[in-house]
Amino acid sequence: MPLYNEGEAPCQLIQHLDAMEGLDEAILVxxxxxxxxxxxxxxxxxxxPANIIxxxxxSRGRALQMNLGASRAAGSTLLFLHCDSRLPQNALSRVRxxxxxxxxxxxxxxxxxxxxxLLRIIETMINLRSRCRQIATGDQCIFVKxxxxxxxxxxxxxxxxxxxxxxKLLKRHARPCLITLPVLTSAxxxxxxxxxxxxxxxxxxxxxxxxxxxxxxxxxxxxxxx
Length: 226
Description:
Elements: E1 2-3, H1 9-18, E2 26-30, H2 35-46, E3 52-55, H3 62-72, E4 77-79, E5 85-86, H4 91-100, E6 105-112, H5 117-133, E7 143-145, H6 146-151, H7 162-171, E8 177-185, H8 188-193, H9 195-211, H10 215-222
Parallel strand pairs: 1-2, 2-3, 6-8
Antiparallel strand pairs: 4-7, 5-8, 6-7
Helix pairs in contact: 9-10
């Protein structure tokens, strides 16, 4: 789980993880540079449950942070979770079933935490696009056998679209399992910038990425909010 200047949010994340059934290990990788966030992480690190580890003072970059966390993980299956996402209670048992059935990687459907009709349309389109293209976004909680993750070299260490990049690498080896069980994800990105504006921005970024524009330039267009 990559963290960057999340304020109080990691407290709720750790509570969520601590209540998860069947969690063997959780690794949070923090790259905060704000004093308040770093202080909060320091306090949490000193009082975490035994199966939750916090790596402090990591280099910033979601791909870098997730690769670092994966390199420290002892499990045979990796699951990548964002700070503002929440797994359903039976998510880990579902992942185990999928992996034990012989599949190599997959993702969950997404549910945005708002009542707006536009959010229902957005989440439906995200899930449908993912199903059609066999591509997963980070908000959909990608999971993968650790051996395959290491075989493909982990997340491409690029400034943006690292989840798309990983999906493309994994697709060369196996089709993903598309779990319809929804992960609840914050809609703050759409609310803060405006729903229509954010949708259009994401379409533009994906089109430019498809055209070959560098992830570093796309990240500048996207802005600092991840």
